Amino acid sequence: MSTPDTTLTTPSPGHDSVASVADSLRRRITAQLSFDEDRFFLILAVFIGIFAGLAVVCFRITMEWSRLYLLGSAINPSPLRAFLAPALAGLFISLLIFTIFKGAAGSGLNQTKAALYVFDGYIPIRTVIGKFITASLAIGSGHSLGPEDPSLQIGAGLASAVGTRLKLSRKKMRLLAPVGAAAGLAAAFNAPISAVLFVIEEVIGHWSAGILGAIVLSAVSSVVTMRLFLGAEPLFRIPSVGVIRWQELVAYAVLGILGGIASVVFSKAIGWIRPKLKATSTTLQLLYPGIAGLLIGLIAFAGFPQVMGAGYDFMDQAMHDQYTWQILGILAGLKILATTLSFCSGTPGGMFAPTLFIGAMLGGAVGTVERIFFPNLTGSVGTYALVGMGVLFAGFLRAPITSVFMALEVSGDYSIILPVLVANMFSYLISRRLQAAPILELITRHDGLSLPAMEEKREEETLNVEDAMRPRPAIVLDGTKTAAEAWPFVMYTAEPYFLVGIPGQPPAQISFGELRHLVEAGDTRPLRSTQALTMVPYLHPDEDLEDALPLATRYPLIPVVNRADLSQLLGVLDLADVMEAYRKSQIEFPAPY
Amino acid sequence: MNVFRRDFVVREPLLVGILVLVAVVFSTITHAYSQAYDRRRNQLGQQWYANGNAELQKQRPATAVEDFRTALLYDPQNWDYRLSLAEALTQAGHTNQALNYYQSLWQVNPKNGLVNLHLARFAAQAGNVSEAERYFNGAIFGDWAETAADHRREALFELINFYLQRKDAGQAESQLIILSGNLPEDPVLHTRVADLYSQVGDYQRAMAQYRLAFQLYPKYLPALYGAGKAALQIGDYRSAETYLGRARREDSAGPDVHNLLQVAQSAAALNPFDHGLHESEKIQRVLRAFQIASTRLDACQKTSTPNGSVPPSLAALQEQLKQWKPNANARFLARQPDQIDALFEFSASVEKQSQSLCGQPTSEDSALLALANSHAMDEK
After folding, report:
1. Are residues A63 and A107 in the same domain?
2. How far apart are CA A226 and CA B32, in angstroms?
């Protein structure tokens, strides 16, 4: 899409040379000192990344302090602490949510999306503080939730706070929220690429070059900041992947199927329990986090304290073959139960880490079983656990692109891509087949909101200019001819505007009235030399119709020209054509960006 | 857009300055917070590590495993904690977990000598020769935190023992030759190497190492004892007598030394192959050997046949003994000197046969057996 250059450089013959030099100098200094809006937005993205990184560092440390005080310093808490801490902390958190921090409940992911689509990217700072305190208490006390989704909301909240302080426009505020979200998630998971992809896949819903740069900058700066304080080590030790034999792909397919089934069970459990609990009285809802904590305490008391908290240490152990397949299977099942309880009770905390935990346990179990039956065939159990994480991510969160890149980014080994693709494909397909609505959409519906469904949005067909343009019109005037020569072609038509072909240049436009005026005035100059011609922007057939829409509202007729020869007119487009194309395709009108 | 831009021309440098300032303040607070937490983490890590070591000393590896895992929670990359966890897992009998843990450590640092040594032990236990050799070599040429030469030598000793257990004397001996070429001046080490040489049957090299041990510590009992045994094996009975005599003086209570000394003395007195021995003396020694063998055979027949039946091999020897008896005298042997060796061979074969069929031999029987073995080796 190209717009005509309307800048005029008019000389000032009246000014003396000194004034001219001074003026030039002033302009140069002003140009050096000023930033344009887009460039400042990129600088702002870096700062948001730094702030989000610092906030996530504080959040993680607070979470660890909570764990130390509430569950003790041992890796497996004492039975009394395991039994009491999540229940009592749950009650306290519930009180905080119902009295001071009303917006802090839930994972944070859907709240961020709601902020983006409903409140123009605005997240109150009270919600950020509330999420920080309540999520760190909940995860630290052993509730089966993760820190990633709250970190995402904290990042978005900080971005919103910065944007509000700077009095940014509504449009910029909406852009800023995903920037902060990516930064928060990247710092929490120590994986910038996955965070960027996840935000694009699950929060924004489509690729947008305008925002991609800012998101990448913020994600990278937040990860760098986080690593300055917490070190560059991953959350779990990554096993070496090694050579994957083709026969092993069968086992990975089985892992994908099991992961898909587990994802459906997990989604259905949340989909069934959560609305039922939300429909009960406020008094009862106040008690749910405590009750959920009590039940998780019971699971820990029964000998499975691994299900408490985010569980990264136990994922590490599963990756390094520290459990039998039976224990791994039990842990996967209990984690689904514990996370369902914690999440449905409204306790603040994310589902990102529990999803990875369940996947790691399932993957570890499949790898261990395969090793028992095919001892010479199996690669490391750790590889299966790693693939399992991606499988649940694809099946439960329905983020297939992120799931593949996450496994790649975390392992740093490209040989994992084939098993990940095979397993994720099965998991995603099974999940889609057995569970129509993705979990995030399901939760949105429970909350009574109508946010764009990202899975559908990803698969939307995009329209191009060529889908809407009309063929080259019958009348295109020759710019080398005079108005009088052109007049016989147009005098009996009802068209208000005509395109004028100019050799070596894109077509211009002239109105019926102006042409008639030239004829009546007896102007003998060629049309291209008259002042009556208007330069109009032009389009190319492969451009997005979404991008052409603003032009169509401003200009009555837009020429569509060949990229190699701008004077070659291929067709024309007006607002009615655009509307007709959208109507025929039944695609909704473009989102805010 | 224009309003926004004009606004920022004026205030954007100021805004960037403010953002930098906020970032610095926020970073300082975060730094202080994280430092406080890091101190606590280190403290807890060390505390749980100490707990784990104490539990290991109390022979409670299962508890130690939990303690080390907790220590690692606070310092996940700490090499000592990780090694200790792997060691505790091994002691707790979680072989697979320990093996995986060592393998993950190896992936981090494939040159670490200790990790290679542990992996070599696992491979040796599993009978995986090529992997054991690879890891043993990794330990021998790997990095060690301190006293690297000592650790590398110990790894080489383990590799030699691994070959000996697999009855691969050739590989063991070749590694021993490498090892003995790099030994420090230590009588204990020379004696260990000499003992291993004896195990692979290279008594000459064993003697050389024992001698190096004496030179460093003339009264070192294991070296004297080992040298006596090696000298017996190679038929140097006078030297054996000397070394074992010295060993007995150092440790008069040792029954083994006493018995071996008697064997050496008897062998020295019975040896018909002594250099410069007069023929009459040689005949006397062969006749004495025949007498010992006859007594052994008679005694053996009585003890091994409580129900009156005689094993065929003993019956055959008894028959040969009857044939020899008329000629087993000095006059016959002086007339037929070619029969001297034949008579000794017969006596030796009696001792060899009776060794497997009869009870404990006397010192003279043992001496005769040693002579027989030594003579057979010389003949070979």
Report:
1. yes
2. 14
